[in-house]
ATP-binding protein (Photobacterium kishitanii), 379 residues
Amino acid sequence: MSKPTYTPYSDPWFYHRPALAQHITNMCRDTLFSRMVYLGTRRIGKTYFFLNDLSPELIKNGMMPIYINMWGNKSAPHTEFAEQLAAALDELKKDGALKRLLNTEIKKLAIGNQIAKVEFEFKPKAANDADILNIKSMLKSVIEAAGEYKIVFILDEFQHLSTSTAFDNFLYALRTVFDSYGSRISVIFTGSSRTGMKAAFEDDKVPFYQSAQVNEFPVIDDGFIDHCTNRLKNSYNININRLELLNFWNEIDQSPHWIINLMRELIANQRTLAQGVSFIRDAIRAEEGHDVLIKSLNNTEKAVLLLRHAQRGIYSESAQAFVKKLGGKSTRSAVQNAERKLEAKNIISVLPNKNVIVEFYGLVDSIWNDVGIPEKTFD
């Protein structure tokens, strides 16, 4: 086939991260990194990055990315996998360099990336022998059609395959076929559930056990805020206070999704920044289910969550005083048990470096408001 080319879908609001794209591309080229896992909280821009930044960079460097969202068909992810393989094979045969395939995914993402997205229940369906044989056959054809170019699979929301034993046949088949092609392919697994991704790669009873190291996906830097304020000014003559927007950006744990929704409010409904932030806070509170979550927490758990989010210890005298201030139990066993419960409820995740991530956007701010400490201090 001819040398791959690709014209990316143009989105002037997208904040490019060329250095990160080059870094991951270099690893994909190296046989040391044939399997990579990138984990990040929902709505921090993972998928947009893999489609808009990484995929064009891979193609520019003579590799062929195939993006497959495991949520594309929640009941039968093996069907989605087969359909995307078929689409990729069609593109490769036409020397389309996956342009239409990637742009279709980007457009689908843009359309579905709005406030109040509704999730539907699904009924897991197992892959049968014919399904597995079909996937193996198509994958072989894709690799042959790619010729000298290495295939890079980007498997998004991979943790979904850990939600039901019905998917086990498909998982075992994937592990076998990926291993059989060795350095001819690289695989990037991405996910938004730490519990699900750990289940997929750290449980010794699952197919992908220890097949890849789980890494945190780097969050977007503060340059994204400058990018947005410049777009507002240059395209709509709207001037906003950068520091106020930066404060909100930090409050929502650097979520580009919610900042873009804020931009829509400022432009479409001509809101002030304060009005827009208030609207988005309410939207986050509703979508993330803050009221229900807060009701499920006792005072000790609320205090521990606030302390750990601030990367503070929970056993010091000052921490004990704060727990008491909120009406909780400050004994060592009580705060230790509270932290364990927060982890068990998937409200927080403790990283290997002992830092803590709160898995629900805006929850910390909502808890500060709930406990009635407007200055948000621990004194």
